[in-house]
Specification:
- By secondary structure, the chain is mainly beta.
- It has one domain: Trefoil (Acidic Fibroblast Growth Factor, subunit A) (Trefoil).
- The protein contains 1 helix and 12 strands.
- The strands form 5 sheets. The protein has a 4-stranded antiparallel β-sheet, with no helix packed on it. A two-stranded antiparallel sheet has the order 1-12. A two-stranded antiparallel sheet has the order 4-5.
- A hairpin with a 5-residue loop joins strand 8 and strand 9.
- It is globular and about 70 Å long.
- The relative contact order is 0.20.
């Protein structure tokens, strides 16, 4: 009888373990909230360049790029927490929302700015790592912000790509002083 009891206990334990575990392509993370009352710079951990709206544009469709720090408003962003736990990321200069171009789920698609339209491609999951850096995932595709081709150059597009734990997918969020 005790062998059957042990076997049932083992099977139930496995069931509970696997039903409580989630399968995700996202890295290990801990819960941390962004203070939505503050403005932020977003710095690539890999290149030490900052996310920037190309040429300071205020137009729909302008690319999100990386560029050397200049402290201008096109390098400053606001985060807006949504009821579902995702964020909108908003350019301070233009007031436009970061957006996965054309609602695409394909790797290599540019991140752009666009007027707010409440679409899923304007919602992002900001995943904090133990070292304080973040990965930024698109809600629509599950893909991660990525400095295109791991470039260290100015004016290189930020695209979405499958999560790979590479340094060109890690960012530091820094409060504007």
């Amino acid at each position: 009888m005790s062998v059957i009891f042990r076997l049932m206990f083992f099977v139930c334990s496995l069931f509970i373990f696997f039903s409580c575990s989630s399968i995700s392509n996202k890295p290990n993370q801990f819960e941390k909230m962004i203070d939505t009352t503050k403005l932020y710079y977003i710095e690539s951990v890999y290149s030490h360049k900052f996310l920037d709206i190309d040429k300071g544009s205020v137009d729909d469709g302008a690319n999100l790029i990386q560029f050397s720090f200049n402290g201008m408003d096109n390098q400053k962003f606001k985060f807006r927490l949504l009821p579902d736990g995702f964020y909108n990321i908003i350019s301070v200069k233009s007031g436009k929302y970061l957006d996965v171009k054309n609602n695409s789920v394909e790797s290599g698609t540019n991140i752009i700015q666009w007027n707010c339209n409440n679409a899923e491609n304007q919602k992002f999951d900001v995943v904090f790592q133990n070292d304080g850096n973040v990965n930024i995932f698109s809600k629509v595709s599950g893909k991660c912000f990525d400095v295109n081709a791991g470039s260290m150059e100015n004016a290189v597009s930020i695209v979405q790509w499958d999560y790979s734990n590479s340094h060109n997918q890690k960012f530091a969020i820094k409060i504007v002083q």
